[in-house]
Amino acid sequence: MKGKLTEERIQALDKLGFVWFPTGEHNELAFADRLLQLEAYKVKHGNCKVECKLDESLCHWAQKVNVSRNAIDAGGETRYKLTERVRPLRGVLTQAFSQIPMT
Fold first, then answer.
1. 11-37, pLDDT tens digit by residue?
2. Cβ-Cβ contacts under 8 Å for 64 (sequence gap 6 or more)
3. Torsion (CA) 35, 69, 64, 100 in degrees, nearest 10
4. How far is CA 89 from CA 12, 17, 18, 33, 92, in A?
5. Which of 24, 55, 65, 103 is least surrounded by Cβ atoms within 10 Å, i.e. has the fewest?
6. pTM for this entry
7. Roughly what angle, to the nearest 10 degrees, separates helices 56-73 and 25-45?
Protein backbone atom coordinates (compact mmCIF):
# COMPACT_ATOMS: atom_id res chain seq x y z
CA MET A 1 0.00 0.00 0.00
CA LYS A 2 2.59 2.52 -1.14
CA GLY A 3 1.73 6.12 -0.29
CA LYS A 4 -1.43 5.29 1.68
CA LEU A 5 -1.98 6.74 5.11
CA THR A 6 -3.55 3.79 6.86
CA GLU A 7 -5.13 3.80 10.30
CA GLU A 8 -2.06 2.00 11.64
CA ARG A 9 0.22 4.70 10.27
CA ILE A 10 -2.00 7.42 11.74
CA GLN A 11 -1.83 5.71 15.13
CA ALA A 12 1.97 5.41 14.89
CA LEU A 13 2.23 9.14 14.10
CA ASP A 14 -0.18 10.00 16.93
CA LYS A 15 1.90 7.92 19.34
CA LEU A 16 4.99 9.94 18.40
CA GLY A 17 3.11 13.20 19.01
CA PHE A 18 2.83 14.22 15.36
CA VAL A 19 1.18 17.64 14.98
CA TRP A 20 -1.83 17.46 12.64
CA PHE A 21 -2.72 20.75 10.97
CA PRO A 22 -6.44 21.43 10.60
CA THR A 23 -7.49 21.72 6.98
CA GLY A 24 -6.06 24.88 5.48
CA GLU A 25 -3.94 25.86 8.48
CA HIS A 26 -0.71 24.64 6.90
CA ASN A 27 -1.47 26.65 3.77
CA GLU A 28 -2.06 29.76 5.86
CA LEU A 29 1.28 29.29 7.62
CA ALA A 30 3.03 28.79 4.29
CA PHE A 31 1.35 31.91 2.88
CA ALA A 32 2.45 34.00 5.88
CA ASP A 33 5.99 32.65 5.51
CA ARG A 34 6.04 33.60 1.82
CA LEU A 35 4.91 37.13 2.68
CA LEU A 36 7.87 37.43 5.04
CA GLN A 37 10.19 36.13 2.32
CA LEU A 38 8.75 38.64 -0.13
CA GLU A 39 9.25 41.45 2.38
CA ALA A 40 12.90 40.43 2.82
CA TYR A 41 13.31 40.27 -0.95
CA LYS A 42 11.95 43.81 -1.28
CA VAL A 43 14.29 45.10 1.41
CA LYS A 44 17.26 43.51 -0.34
CA HIS A 45 16.35 44.27 -3.97
CA GLY A 46 14.17 47.37 -3.66
CA ASN A 47 11.08 45.86 -5.29
CA CYS A 48 8.72 42.88 -5.32
CA LYS A 49 9.46 41.86 -8.91
CA VAL A 50 10.97 38.53 -7.94
CA GLU A 51 13.46 37.30 -10.51
CA CYS A 52 13.72 33.53 -10.84
CA LYS A 53 17.50 33.75 -11.21
CA LEU A 54 17.67 35.34 -7.74
CA ASP A 55 15.09 33.18 -5.92
CA GLU A 56 13.46 30.49 -8.03
CA SER A 57 11.10 29.19 -5.34
CA LEU A 58 9.79 32.63 -4.35
CA CYS A 59 9.54 33.57 -8.03
CA HIS A 60 7.29 30.59 -8.78
CA TRP A 61 5.10 31.41 -5.78
CA ALA A 62 4.81 35.04 -6.93
CA GLN A 63 3.82 33.86 -10.39
CA LYS A 64 1.05 31.70 -8.88
CA VAL A 65 -0.19 34.65 -6.83
CA ASN A 66 -0.28 36.82 -9.96
CA VAL A 67 -2.22 34.18 -11.88
CA SER A 68 -4.65 33.90 -8.96
CA ARG A 69 -5.13 37.65 -8.71
CA ASN A 70 -5.77 37.94 -12.44
CA ALA A 71 -8.38 35.20 -12.16
CA ILE A 72 -9.96 36.92 -9.16
CA ASP A 73 -10.06 40.24 -11.00
CA ALA A 74 -11.75 38.48 -13.91
CA GLY A 75 -14.34 37.07 -11.50
CA GLY A 76 -13.15 33.49 -11.84
CA GLU A 77 -12.05 30.80 -9.45
CA THR A 78 -8.44 29.74 -9.03
CA ARG A 79 -6.94 26.38 -8.42
CA TYR A 80 -4.69 27.95 -5.78
CA LYS A 81 -7.72 29.19 -3.83
CA LEU A 82 -6.09 32.44 -2.78
CA THR A 83 -9.28 34.45 -3.20
CA GLU A 84 -10.03 34.79 0.50
CA ARG A 85 -6.42 35.63 1.34
CA VAL A 86 -5.49 37.97 -1.51
CA ARG A 87 -8.55 40.21 -1.68
CA PRO A 88 -8.38 41.58 1.89
CA LEU A 89 -4.58 41.89 1.75
CA ARG A 90 -4.30 43.96 -1.44
CA GLY A 91 -4.48 47.35 0.22
CA VAL A 92 -2.65 46.26 3.35
CA LEU A 93 0.26 44.78 1.41
CA THR A 94 0.48 47.74 -0.94
CA GLN A 95 0.64 50.11 2.02
CA ALA A 96 3.04 47.92 4.01
CA PHE A 97 5.47 47.41 1.14
CA SER A 98 5.45 51.11 0.27
CA GLN A 99 6.63 51.88 3.82
CA ILE A 100 9.64 49.55 3.72
CA PRO A 101 12.76 51.68 3.41
CA MET A 102 14.82 51.16 0.29
CA THR A 103 18.44 50.48 1.13
1. 998 898 887 765 555 666 678 888 889
2. 80, 82
3. -30
4. 39, 34, 32, 15, 5
5. 103
6. 0.52
7. 110
